[in-house]
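Progress against Task 2.4 (sequence-to-structure conversion) is shown through the following example record, which the project officer requested during the mid-term review.
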Amino acid sequence: MTTTAEQLSATTLLRFATAGSVDDGKSTLVGRLLHDSKSVLTDQLEAVEHASRNRGQEAPDLALLTDGLRAEREQGITIDVAYRYFATPRRRFILADTPGHVQYTRNMVTGASTAELAVVLVDARNGVVEQTRRHAAVAALLRVPHVVLAVNKMDLVDYAEPVFAAIAEEFTAYAASLGVPEITAIPISALAGDNVVEPSAHMDWYGGPTVLEHLETVPVSHDLTACHARFPVQYVIRPQTAEHPDYRGYAGQIAAGVFRVGEPVTVLPSGRTSTIAGIDLLGDSVDIAWAPQSVTLRLTDDIDVSRGDLIAPVGDAPAVTQDVEATVCHVADEPLTVGRRVLIKHTTRTVKAIVKDIPSRLTLDDLSQHPAPGKLVANDIGRVVVRTAEPLALDAYADSRRTGSFLLIDPADGTTLSAGMAGASFAAAEEAPAADDDAEWDF
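Structure tokens generated for the chain above:
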């Protein structure tokens, strides 16, 4: 029996994030999606209607469905990332409504780190602004495979096609220069509901999909089994009981790829090799396991393996290094400076490190590199060189969003300083990898 694209999409989960400048209508768009797709509970809608009346509004303010913090409702802005789950008959969704203010760009990194699609909103009256370019750059750096340009508030420009066409052309050229592989432009009015869930009667010149139609049909290419096999060891199991006197297993979640019994593997960073003797899954022995299953691997040889080690196939293992060159988004209020001692957390491994160099800081308005800035402050994106006390087995972020990402952490109090992407840069010629994991950076 052949599985149709329609049947396949009904079983898939799409993670997507919204982004854009202040007051471009991100929260209203999300609220409209939830409302018009019948994904809002009655008591939630009543609470929004009550809050809207208290603010002197006749119609319910759908933005309040996602602006859940008290400070957000009082100020009328989005501060934190709001996550919402909803589903249609064709697909399931997890959305992240991210802030538009410059000082909350780091929150956009959180929301987009696991996204397979980013919806970037633009106010039709203002066009592409600096924060629009900033969010497009973050989406490109995070290798988000699909970007939707939602030109919002078309009702305020009389639904004029030339306005939409000019904005779409400018944004598409900019995003393509960053290496974004797929860009879809949709004219909408989130407040009125035009082209969000239902087609607009005011824009007969537009023949493309609505936002929801595109979300339901966009290919979700997160086939982890096609990626390089990687298994970060989380826990060593040695019960040493009378029933299992010699049992030694290595438990964790497969980050990517497929592992099979009898396959030769190498343990990093030591480089020792062995063969998979058995795979235990939910109490049963299996011959094959794949990402993102949580399993226990057993090896034929009694070698030294501990938490933080990485098991990979022989001949397809990542490089081991103590000099990490990466692009980072600095998320802490305290600056990151050359000579700063940090901890670097990569998968299940955490090691001491020092920031050797900050070669450049990215200027997002023209994508130029500001050389030798000396430090990175909150929301800065820049290149860093970090020397680790112990070797790390790092993939390039372009190959794996899970095993190519890391965090820089303050060793004194555990505060997250920066989110890093090994080797990441803007490269229009590179193919964006699949959104292959759940490696969300939680700040």
